[in-house]
């Protein structure tokens, strides 16, 4: 179900300040993935720290590895800690470079 939500969120809603983009890559095959998070709806209150925590599952489209991200936020919804199982966080620049690279390889 969370995968469906992830897909759906790609196509809904224009950019707003509650949106956060996560860029990750699969540790197994290196496929880059961009996942949109809604900071207003997707975060769970973390009563221990007074902040928030987000659990996100995503699957890459090449080897179908299911990656589980756990991201912790402070009370102002700033990221304080992030980890991901079976994947790796990358920057937006890295993501875009990898997507470009993928397109080039496909064309040739
Ligand atoms: Zn993969």
Give the topology, please.
Layout: H1 2-11, E1 19-26, E2 32-38, E3 44-46, E4 51-59, E5 66-73, E6 79-85, E7 87-89, H2 92-107
Antiparallel strand pairs: 1-2, 1-7, 3-4, 4-5, 5-6
This protein binds zinc ion.
Zinc ion (ZN) binds at residues 26, 28-29, 31, 60, 62-63, 65.
Which descriptors would you attach to this protein?
108 residues; alpha+beta; four-stranded antiparallel β-sheet; 42% strand; binds zinc ion
Distance between the termini: 36 Å
The total of beta strands comes to: 7
Number of domains: 1
Low-confidence stretches: none
Structure explained in plain terms:
The chain is of the alpha+beta class and 108 residues long. It has one domain (2-102). Helix content is 24%, strand content 42%. The protein has two helices and seven strands. The protein has helices at 2-11, 92-107, and strands at residues 19-26, 32-38, 44-46, 51-59, 66-73, 79-85, 87-89. The strands form two sheets. Strands 3-4-5-6 form a four-stranded antiparallel beta sheet. It has a three-stranded antiparallel beta sheet with strand order 2-1-7. The chain is elongated, with a radius of gyration of 15 Å. The mean pLDDT is 87. It binds zinc ion. Zinc ion (ZN) is lined by residues 26, 28-29, 31, 60, 62-63, 65. Residues 26, 28-29, 31, 60, 62-63, 65 line the site of zinc ion.
Briefly summarize what is shown.
This protein is an alpha+beta fold and 108 residues long. It is built from 2 helices and 7 strands.
